[in-house]
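Hi everyone,

Forwarding the result from last night's run.
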Amino acid sequence: MREFWPRYLQTIRRVARERGFAVPTRESFMQEVGPDGALFVGSPETVARKIVANLGRLGATRFDLKFGMPGLPQEAVMTNVELYGTQVIPRVRRLVSDQAVAIEGR
């Protein structure tokens, strides 16, 4: 969140001027990265749990994630990709599997 927030704010400020909508505040950003928000930002565990919650809410079987923001260094983008593949996806699969077992066991 520390790396993402300033770039997100800068990008949304530019787009807000062009499209006429409100610039986010730190408070609104924190809501968006929270459990019910639209931004999937945080630790691999946080992101995995948020993905699983939204798959269930939407009845979806796929999830696609944007790994960076304008201005985010290439190294950070590559770290995001690596964490998604090595930690987030396996955790999502375990959580989904655990949910399926719990439902079958009812």
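The two ends are 38 Å apart (CA to CA).

Cheers,
N.
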